[in-house]
Amino acid sequence: MQKKEILYIVIPCYNEEEVIRETSKRLIKKINHLIDANLISLKSKVMFVDDGSQDNTWNLITSIHKENELFTGILLSRNRGHQNALLAGLMVAKKDADIVISMDADLQDDINTIDEMLKDYYAGNEIVYGVRKNRNKDSFFKKTSAHFFYKFMKKLGVDIIYNHADYRLTSKKVLDELENFNEVNLFLRGIFPLIGFKHSIVYYERKKRYAGKSKYPFKKMLNFAFDGITSFSIKPIRLVLNLGLIMLIISLIMLIYSLVVKFTGHTVDGWAFIVCSIWIVAGIQTLAIGLIGEYIGKIYNETKRRPRYIIEKNLSEK
């Protein structure tokens, strides 16, 4: 008889008081359905991770836990960002769970996909990626920028699953290996493919957010994308190097041209050209210095080895 595994569903939360009650109601039905179908153990739980919310999120998590021990939660000492909050939940959950599914609190990830994820896991896959079928509900800008991001990451040599965010199933074995990745600059959707093991993909329709506002406005999305690029590839640095070589060649050509003009006795106005050249070169140099500085800043953060999160409260601990 197939052993029924302990499943933990890990849900990072930041100011989710408007949606967390509804999320818990739907997950109670889903967990009970999975238990009745003999897909998971009675010891399975849902773990909310409060990423230093400023609203009533933690009080609601505590209340939900008291009402039903199917739910548990951890509170981070301060806001550490989605990726660190998710990592905290994964590391705490793996102590008791055989398999962990991570998802967002806003009910955009279709929880009915969990059945298919579990079937793929029992078929021998250690990681099952939840991938949205399309981006029909996104704005033109978001759809285009997301497409560009994934394509650009692939061009840089980053192994990343197209249209996959953080809705995934992972086994305890995978999470044990994830613990060995000690980098401070986290980009989990790029790390999991690096871990390896047999994996599969399940597709689902992403729904509209049930309530509240997105915690990823344009600025945060831009920063997240840039972190992903600079955390997994040094090709932007090489691009700057190649650009510098091209500028050097152009400069040598212009030097030879200037000398030829001088010795042949021709007068050249050239003031506008010189000014434009100075501004272009200065702009490229500033961009290059900024890019290099970004990498140096990441090295600086990594060398300090500060903790990626601090857990203030854990409802599972008596």
At a glance:
The chain contains ten helices and eight strands. It is α/β, with parallel strands linked by helices and 318 residues long.
Structure report:
- The chain has 318 residues and is α/β, with parallel strands linked by helices.
- It has a single domain (7-232, 306-314), classed as Spore Coat Polysaccharide Biosynthesis Protein SpsA, Chain A.
- Helix content is 50%, strand content 15%.
- It is built from 10 helices and 8 strands.
- It has helices spanning 20-36, 57-67, 82-93, 113-122, 140-155, 172-178, 188-195, 218-232, 235-263, 271-304, and strands at residues 7-13, 45-50, 71-76, 99-102, 127-132, 164-171, 199-204, 311-314.
- Strands 7-5-6-4-1-2-3-8 form an 8-stranded mixed beta sheet, sandwiched between helices.
- Helix 9 (235-263) runs antiparallel to helix 10 (271-304).
- The protein is elongated and about 95 Å long.
- The chain starts with 6 loop residues before the first strand and ends with a strand.
- The model has no long low-confidence stretch (mean pLDDT 79).
Cα radius of gyration in angstroms: 25 Å
- Beta content comes to 5-15%
Q: What fold name stands as the CATH topology?
A: Spore Coat Polysaccharide Biosynthesis Protein SpsA, Chain A
**Low-pLDDT regions:** none
Order of helices and strands: EHEHEHEHEHEHHEHHHE
